[in-house]
């Protein structure tokens, strides 16, 4: 880990993203902040609709309409990229920051060969000659473990299996040696054995090419496997973040407790009943006034319903947004 | 419970389901989705079925209910071969919960009508009042309210929709339910709710489940016995603890080692077996043992002869040449 370096590669400060739909403003991301240092792998976990993907689309500058960044800023390599014009963003996107998507079936263009699609990235961002580009593509294919690269680059996406397509996506993302790779549920659509292949590949590549990775997933097992630190999102807020051991062994937020308890233990001998989180996910059009998790929280206090919780720093890296951490409030509520 | 001494609810022998595919002019080839699968499902147990996509686990579940007509083989339900009979009366006993809670509910029907439809088909009520009462009762069983009966599917979240799907399956008081990946479309925190509900219902009503999933940790949690499928074949079958402690088939071993564990310390020390390559196309599955193309231990015999599915330990069946 190189987390000791003091300048974060990516700093997200109080980022707010809303979707302006005809039924009203959907506050998909509500004031989230995090730092990512060079060489780190950060996992963002959360349920569907928690804002985990949208927040990174914001970083990439590819928010789908009618989404807008309504507050906060994004600093990449010390530079504010929050409201950069499209022209400037194009220079960064695909070169310094690149992304792999969840569904390799739909994120490749079916009417161009895969080699052609990677070539496009290289034409855009580098001044290599034809021959050099071809060599680079073959090198990339070898890097991501696609056999017979000379033959494969001339094939179309439908000739590849799901796992292989995801490898092509990774090759494309790595084409310009990005500083930051955002992986949006890269293994969710794949089978377990293929998932294991892709995860092993990503881990290996991360060490080979010195890059930072944001790994978005809902699978805690995958997080435990690949990440150095974790951010847990719920209802558009980042409710807890910290390094991986802190989150898994000393979680402080009731939602994180719940998440960890609700996965069945594979090596349990006795049959243990699962402990679910009761209730349903939040409605982001009318989010609760206080803590987003309050309506489902078993430790919910009065203050949780009305005021957003403060950020409490457990240690230098471990931060949690929860009223339970504020001693005075907790004591007061308990005595009532 | 039913006063039948026969302990096995379902006995399946040599079940095959081939789908024909046009492969050029006047030429047909077959996708062997389920190829010669034999197993028994005991009364009151949960049999888990795992495997990667395309291994035929869903086809197997659907063929059991004759939603697909079997190509060959016997399905004996409670002593009667149901491969040739009229299924209407058996639909009351055998039900299914589908994977996708978004696609499996008709968006134009109210929840009340969706749950009421099986009641209508099987004429399970004598008056409208009784029908309504039964619908309310079912909604309560799955943790929803009476007022939900007049709403439409789009007003519900994924977890709630899956509850509706379960209520529909319960409507006819079945004995046997095929749960076809009932939780894979749901969020983690909701999955546990549904798994617990399925377990409670089983305890209360004595259901027998065939639980199909690709999430091995959930399957292990809910099942008494587990079958592992690969390319249409059953490669291993055993009681669930035994399978996790002592997997014998190389495919099961890799499948188990590929599960990500939600525990960073354990995950760091865990040794992983990573399979190379992809699952072959079921259109031309390999000769001999279907797993030979990816198996690290494959020998000459594996390419020639299909291994026999036999018992290696009490109640632990495996199809592999390399086990003595």
Write a short abstract of this structure:
The complex is a heterodimer of chains A (about 325) and B (about 325). Chain A has about 325 residues and is α/β, with parallel strands linked by helices. Chain A has helices spanning about 50-60, 85-90, 115-125, 130-145, 150, 160-175, 190-210, 220-225, 245-250, 255-260, 300-305, 325-335, and strands at about 10-20, 25-35, 40-45, 65-75, 80, 95-100, 180-185, 210-215, 230-235, 235-245, 310-315, 320.
Question: How would you describe this structure to a colleague?
Answer:
The complex is a heterodimer of chains A (336) and B (324). In chain A, 33% of the residues lie in helices and 23% in strands. With 336 residues, chain A is an alpha/beta fold. Chain A has a single domain, classed as Rossmann fold. Chain A has an eight-stranded mixed sheet with strand order 6-7-8-3-9-10-12-11, with helices on both faces. Chain A has a four-stranded antiparallel sheet with strand order 2-1-4-5. In chain A, α4 (130-143) crosses α6. The relative contact order of chain A is 0.13. Chain B is α/β, with parallel strands linked by helices. Chain B has a single domain (8-93, 174-319), classed as 3-Layer(aba) Sandwich (Rossmann fold), CATH 3.40.50.300. Chain B has helices at 57-64, 88-91, 111-121, 128-141, 158-170, 188-205, 216-222, 240-245, 250-257, 264-269, 300-304, and strands at residues 8-22, 28-42, 46-50, 72-77, 80-81, 94-97, 176-180, 208-212, 225-230, 233-239, 309-313, 316-319. In chain B, the strands form two sheets. Chain B has an eight-stranded mixed sheet, sandwiched between helices. In chain B, strands 2-1-4-5 form a four-stranded antiparallel sheet. In chain B, α3 (111-121) crosses α4 (128-141). The two termini of chain B are 41 Å apart. Classes of the chains: A alpha/beta (336), B alpha/beta (324). The A-B interface holds A 47-48, 161, 163-164, 191-197, 199-200, 218-225, 244-245, 248, 258-260, 262-267, 269, 271, 273-278, 280-281 and B 52-53, 157-160, 187-193, 195-196, 199, 214, 216-218, 220-221, 241, 244, 254-255, 257-267, 272, 274-276, 278-279.
